[in-house]
TrEMBL record:
SUPFAM superfamilies: ADC-like, Formate dehydrogenase/DMSO reductase, domains 1-3. GO terms for biological process: respiratory electron transport chain. Residues 5-62 form the 4Fe-4S Mo/W bis-MGD-type domain. Residues 694-715 are annotated as: Disordered. It comes from Ilumatobacter fluminis. The keyword Hydrolase does not apply. Pfam families: Molybdop_Fe4S4, Molybdopterin, Molydop_binding. Gene3D superfamilies: 2.40.40.20, 3.40.50.740, ADC-like domains, Dimethylsulfoxide Reductase, domain 2. This is Assimilatory nitrate reductase catalytic subunit. GO terms for cellular component: membrane.
Length: 715
C-alpha cells in the first residue's frame, strides 16, 4: 500500500468486524477513494460491498452542513452559535423547571470509545440526569448481561481466528452471510474442509450453511429449551467435565436440576428438533477436542434473551469450554463499536470502563478521577424503550440524541411516534437528516462521519484499534467540538475541554486503571495494530484469550445460573398464526441512514420485503408480483414478498431496515436486559387483493402504509 502521506488508516464505519481500510485523499484534502489495508487486524484488508463504498458518505450531497432549527413546524438553517445556544438553553430551562431527570440522552454503538465516554460523562455532569441509554440496548445487552453474570466481564472470550481450527462450530441465531460477510464465512469453511462439524441453530438458513452441516431448524423463541435439553443430555451420557465444574465453577447443582426435566423428547415437542439429533449434538459438543459456540441476535433479541444466552453458557461450562484455548463461547457483537460502546458509560446502569453505577466503590473511583463529589453522580436510570415511554407520559421532556434513529429501529413504531411527539426539546446530532430528526427534532446539529474525527473503537474480539482522521469535518465542527461547546454553555466546560480524540483517550486510560475493562496500558501508538483489553500496563501484551486461569469474579470462578423456561409473553394463535422474525440484508446497515444514500447499496436492496416459505405462498395463492399484508397486534404493513425454501413454514422473515418492520413488533422487554423481542412477533399474513379490494386505499402512499388500518386488533 502506498504511504505517500495521502492514505489514512481507519476502520469501516459499519459492522463490528471493523475491516481495516485506507482512506485516500488528494492534495486539496478531499477524500477521493479507498485502498486496501492489507495488514489490518482480523480481516487483512478484505471488505464487503458496504465497506468498499463507505467513503462515499463523507462528502455526500445529503450531508448536513449547517445546523437546523424548527420554526413554524419546519427545519430551517441557522448559525452554529444560535443552534448551540438554543440547544443548551432548552435543556437548562427544562432542568430548572422540572428537575435534572426530565432531560435524557440516547446515544449509539457506532460512536468511537471517546464519544461514548463523553456522552455518558455529559449526561451525568452537564444534565445531571440518570436517564442515558443507547441503541446497543436493542443489540448486545442480553449477551452482555449473561456474560457478566456468568464470567464477570462483558467481552468475547476467544479470538475468532480459533474458529477455523475448531472440531465443532455451533452457530446460534447468526445470519453469517449477510451480517458477518467477511472473514467468518471463510473461517467456518476452512474448519468444514478440515472435517469439522458445523451446527447451525436457526429458523432460516443463509448461504453460509452447506449440505452436510447439521442444520437445526429451531422453532423461534425456544433456544433456551434446546440448550437446557443439551445440558441434561450431556449429564445423562456421562460426558460432564466434572473436574472443570468442581475446580472452576459454582452453582452447577441448581443449574442441572433445572435442566434435568428437559428430556430429548420434551425438547423435540417444543423446538421441533428431533430427540435423536438432540442426543447426537450433545455428544458432539461434549466430546469435541476444540468446540466454538458463536451466538448473535437470533436467540438474544427475545423477551427471554438473557436466559437463552445463560442456557448456552451453562452447556459450555458443563463441557469445560470457557478458558480452554481453541474452545469457548463467543457473542458476535454487531455495531461498529458495539463492544466499546457498551463499556464506556453511555448505559443507564454503567460508569466508564465497565464499572457499575450502583456500586459505591466504582462510584467513588470515577467521581474522584472526574474531580466531582460522589453525591453529585446520578444513580441508575431508565433504558431506551422506557425513556421513550416516559416521554409519552411527559416524565421526560428534553432529549439529546446522538447516533441513533428510533423511528426505524425501535419496536412498536406507532407508539414510538406518539411518545416522541410529546417531547418539548429534542436535539439530534447526526451527519444526515434521519427519520427521527425530521419528525421530532427541535434542533439538528450536523454530526461527524468516521473519516472526519480520530478515535478508537473496540472490535468484536475485544481489540482496541484506532481510526485516524482523514479529512476535516464537512460541517466544520466535530462531534467532540459539539459536546465541548454544549458543556461550556451548561457551565461544566472544564470537564469537557477536549479537541482531539487522543486527549479524551488519555483521560479514559487513567479513569479505567484498575477497573474491570482496563485500558491503561494501551497507548495511542499501540492502538494502531490493536491491543486486547484488559491491558493494565504499557509493557503488558494485552489479553486475546480470556479466562485461561481464572474468571473475572472475585473468587475466580464462573457462575452457572439456573435457567427456567420462559415463553414469549404473547404466542401465536388462530388470529396471528405466524411468527415474524426480522434481520438484515447484506447491502444495508441498520436504519440505513448512511447506506440508503449510497447508490450501489440502494440498488442492491431498494426496499423492504418479507420472505415466506414457498408452500405458504402457494396456500395464499401468491404470484411473484403480489404484495402481502402483515398484521400484528401493533400495526400493519404492506410489502412485496419473496420465496425462501430454507425458512420454516410457520415463520415470516422480514428485513428490518425500513419502517414497515418495526411497525409490527412489540415493546415487550426481557426483564433483565430490557432488550425488545425483535425476533418473535405473532402476525397474520394475507395477499393484498387487487384493485377494488377494501385495502386498496392503503396500498400506495408509503406514509399511509404504516398507519394501522381497519384490520388492526387492539391488544
Ligand atoms: N449487512 C449488515 N450487516 C450487519 C448489520 C446490518 O445492519 N447490515 N448490523 C450489524 C449489527 S448491529 C448486528 S447486531 C449484527 C446482527 O447479526 P445477526 O444476529 O447475525 O443478524 P440478523 O439478520 O438479525 O439475524 C439473526 C439470525 O437469527 C435468526 N433467528 C431468528 N429468530 C431466531 C430464534 O428464535 N432462534 C435462533 N436460534 N435464531 C433465530 C434469523 O433467522 C437470522 O439468521 O449484524 C451486524 N452486521
Ligand atoms: N426489528 C428489528 N429491529 C432492530 C433490530 C432487528 O434485528 N430487528 N436490530 C437492532 C440492532 S441490533 C441495533 S444495533 C439497532 C440500531 O439502531 P439505530 O439507532 O437505528 O442505528 P443506526 O442506523 O446505526 O443509527 C445511527 C444513526 O447515527 C448516525 N451516526 C453514525 N455514526 C455517527 C457518528 O459518529 N456521529 C453521529 N453524530 N452520528 C452518527 C447515523 O447517520 C444514523 O442516523 O437497531 C435495532 N432494531
Ligand atoms: S460492513 Fe462489516 S464486513 Fe463489510 S467492510 Fe464493513 S466491517 Fe467489513
Ligand atoms: Mo446491533
Amino acid at each position: 500500500m502506498s504511504t505517500d502521506g495521502r492514505v489514512t488508516l481507519s476502520h469501516c464505519p459499519y459492522c463490528a468486524l471493523n475491516c481495516g481500510v485506507g482512506l485516500e485523499t488528494d492534495p486539496a484534502g478531499r477524500l477521493v477513494g479507498q485502498v486496501r489495508w492489507k495488514g489490518s487486524p482480523l480481516t487483512g484488508g478484505a471488505v464487503c460491498s458496504k465497506g468498499s463504498t463507505a467513503w462515499e458518505q463523507v462528502q455526500h450531497r445529503d450531508r448536513l452542513t449547517a445546523p437546523l432549527v424548527r420554526r413554524d413546524g419546519r427545519l430551517v438553517e441557522t448559525s452554529w452559535d444560535e443552534a448551540l445556544d438554543l440547544a443548551a438553553e432548552g435543556f437548562a430551562r427544562i432542568k430548572a423547571e422540572h428537575g435534572a431527570d426530565v432531560n435524557a440522552v440516547l446515544s449509539g454503538g457506532s460512536l468511537t470509545n471517546e464519544k461514548a465516554y463523553l456522552v455518558g460523562k455529559f449526561a451525568r455532569l452537564a444534565f445531571g440526569t440518570r436517564h442515558v441509554d443507547y441503541n446497543g440496548r436493542f443489540c448486545m445487552v442480553s449477551a452482555g448481561s449473561a456474560n457478566l453474570q456468568a464470567f464477570g466481564l462483558d467481552r468475547s472470550m476467544t479470538p475468532l481466528s480459533e474458529v477455523e481450527r475448531a472440531d465443532v462450530v455451533v452457530v446460534v441465531g447468526a445470519n453469517v452471510s449477510d451480517a458477518y460477510p467477511v472473514m467468518l464465512p471463510n473461517a467456518i469453511n476452512r474448519a468444514r474442509q478440515r472435517g469439522a462439524r458445523i451446527i447451525a441453530v436457526d429458523p432460516r438458513f443463509g448461504r453460509w450453511v452447506k449440505d452436510g452441516d447439521t442444520a437445526l431448524a429451531i422453532r423461534p423463541g425456544t433456544d433456551g429449551v434446546l440448550f437446557l435439553g443439551l445440558l441434561a443430555e450431556v449429564e445423562r451420557q456421562g460426558l460432564l467435565d466434572v473436574d472443570y465444574i468442581a475446580e472452576r465453577t459454582v452453582g452447577f447443582a441448581e443449574a442441572i436440576a433445572a435442566a434435568r426435566p428437559w428430556t430429548p423428547e420434551r425438547v423435540e415437542a417444543e423446538t421441533d428438533i428431533d430427540a435423536a439429533t438432540v442426543r447426537d449434538v450433545a455428544r458432539a459438543i461434549a466430546t469435541a477436542p476444540r468446540c466454538m459456540i458463536l451466538h448473535a441476535r437470533g436467540a438474544e433479541q427475545q423477551t427471554m434473551g438473557t436466559n437463552n444466552v445463560l442456557s448456552m453458557i451453562n452447556l459450555a461450562l458443563a463441557c469445560g469450554l470457557p478458558g480452554r484455548p481453541g474452545s469457548g463461547i463467543d457473542m458476535l457483537t454487531g455495531q461498529r463499536n458495539g463492544q466499546g460502546g457498551r463499556e464506556w458509560g453511555q448505559r443507564c446502569n454503567q460508569l466508564p470502563a465497565g464499572r457499575s453505577i450502583a456500586d459505591p466503590e466504582h462510584r467513588r473511583v470515577v467521581a474522584e478521577r472526574w474531580g466531582v463529589p460522589v453525591e453529585s453522580l446520578p444513580g441508575v436510570g431508565a433504558t431506551y424503550v422506557e425513556i421513550l415511554q416516559m416521554a409519552g407520559r411527559r416524565e421526560i421532556r428534553g432529549l439529546l440524541s446522538i447516533s441513533n434513529n428510533w423511528r426505524i429501529s425501535a419496536p412498536d413504531l406507532h407508539a414510538v411516534d406518539r411518545q416522541a411527539d410529546e417531547l418539548d426539546h429534542v436535539v439530534v446530532i447526526d451527519p444526515f437528516l434521519s427519520e427521527s430528526a425530521e419528525r421530532h427534532a427541535t434542533i439538528v446539529l450536523p454530526g461527524t462521519t468516521f473519516a472526519e474525527e480520530e478515535g478508537t473503537i473496540t472490535t468484536i474480539e475485544g481489540r482496541v484499534v484506532r481510526c485516524d482522521q482523514a479529512v476535516a469535518p464537512v460541517p466544520r465542527r466535530s462531534d467532540i467540538d459539539i459536546v465541548r461547546n454544549l458543556a461550556r454553555r451548561l457551565g461544566v466546560g472544564e470537564h469537557f475541554d477536549f479537541v482531539r480524540g487522543r486527549e479524551v483517550f488519555d483521560e479514559m486510560r487513567r479513569v479505567s486503571a484498575g477497573g474491570p475493562n482496563d485500558y491503561s496500558g494501551i497507548t495511542w501508538d499501540r492502538a494502531r495494530d490493536g491491543v486486547f483489553w484488559p491491558c493494565p500496563s504499557e509493557d503488558h501484551p494485552g489479553t486475546p484469550q480470556l479466562y485461561t486461569d481464572r474468571f473475572a469474579h472475585a473468587d475466580g470462578r464462573a457462575r452457572f445460573v439456573a435457567v427456567h423456561r420462559l415463553s414469549p409473553p404473547v404466542d401465536v394463535d388462530r388470529q396471528y398464526p405466524f411468527v415474524l422474525t426480522t434481520g438484515r440484508h447484506l447491502a444495508q446497515y441498520l436504519s440505513g441512514n448512511q447506506t440508503k444514500r449510497i447508490d450501489a447499496q440502494q440498488r442492491k436492496a431498494p426496499g423492504p420485503y418479507a420472505e415466506l416459505h414457498p408452500e405458504i405462498a402457494t396456500e395464499l395463492g401468491l404470484t411473484p408480483e403480489d404484495r402481502i399484508v402483515l398484521t400484528s397486534r401493533q400495526g400493519r404493513s404492506v410489502v412485496p414478498w419473496r420465496p425462501n425454501p430454507s425458512l420454516r413454514p410457520d415463520t415470516v422473515f422480514m428485513l428490518y431496515h425500513w419502517r414497515e418492520c418495526n411497525t409490527l413488533t412489540s415493546a415487550d422487554l426481557d426483564p433483565t436486559s430490557k432488550i425488545p423481542g425483535f425476533k418473535f412477533t405473532p402476525v397474520a399474513v394475507r395477499r393484498l387483493a387487487a384493485v377494488g379490494d377494501d385495502d386498496v386505499a392503503n396500498e400506495v402512499p408509503s406514509d399511509v402504509n404504516d398507519r394501522p388500518g381497519p384490520l388492526e386488533v387492539p391488544s
